Amino acid sequence: MEKRILYTIITIVVVVVLAFSIYQFSGEFIYRGEAKGCLDTDADENSAEGLNFLEKGTVTYTNRDVKFTDYCYRTAEVKEYYCEGGIRIRSTLKGCSEVDMDTCVDGACVKQAKQS
Question: Which residue has the higher pLDDT, 9 or 18?
Answer without folding.
Answer: 9
